[in-house]
């Protein structure tokens, strides 16, 4: 019975894999109970059917568009104070201890985050989104990922760097991308569709579709034919 319930849950979220027969029913009951608690918490916090972990804060949820079956892990902060709508597509998952920072300073109202369908990111993610972050569909990412969508200006030697303000181009990731753990995305970078970003890379350029990129700074290692 419990396997049938889980299989229906997977199908409703667009996942087609079969449950391993070795998975014990006790584990599935535990996960199901946890998901029900998260669903209740999500509805109380936002009035919408999303899954939210414990000790998670969602600020200005009226400015956030939630797709179906969105999951936000425990101990997260989601800042909805942005000049544009925050969009979390269907089946988006944000790992525990993650933080979305849309507006970093009162001198500049930030743009925020758009994350496509079936995209997921691991624990301890930092979304620095004042300059805007766009993530496509079917993007899977490891833990300890960081996005920094603005730069400090520093060319005026008559002023302190902290007094010169910031500039922003934004960050864009295409569709069907695999990002390894501890990758850093810097302002102005773009990663094309069907690509892989190696763990630990510092991504600061524009990379074409079907690329495997890695290194500090990241470069195209090979093409996916």
Protein described:
The protein has 225 residues and is α/β, with parallel strands linked by helices. The chain has two helices and 25 strands. The chain has helices at 2-12, 25-46, and strands at residues 51-52, 57-59, 64-66, 71-72, 77-79, 86-88, 93-94, 99-101, 113-115, 120-121, 126-128, 133-135, 140-141, 146-148, 151-152, 166-167, 171-173, 178-179, 184-186, 190-191, 196-197, 202-203, 206-207, 211-214, 219-223. The strands form five sheets. It has a seven-stranded parallel beta sheet, with no helix packed on it. A seven-stranded parallel beta sheet has the order 3-6-9-12-17-20-23, with no helix packed on it. A five-stranded mixed beta sheet has the order 13-18-21-24-25, with no helix packed on it. A hairpin with a 4-residue loop joins strand 24 (211-214) and strand 25. The N and C termini lie far apart (43 Å).
Give me the secondary-structure topology.
Layout (H helix, E strand, L loop, with lengths): L1 H11 L12 H22 L4 E2 L4 E3 L4 E3 L4 E2 L4 E3 L6 E3 L4 E2 L4 E3 L11 E3 L4 E2 L4 E3 L4 E3 L4 E2 L4 E3 L2 E2 L13 E2 L3 E3 L4 E2 L4 E3 L3 E2 L4 E2 L4 E2 L2 E2 L3 E4 L4 E5 L2
Parallel strand pairs: 1-4, 2-5, 3-6, 4-7, 5-8, 6-9, 7-10, 8-11, 9-12, 11-14, 12-17, 13-18, 14-19, 17-20, 18-21, 19-22, 20-23, 21-24
Antiparallel strand pairs: 15-16, 24-25
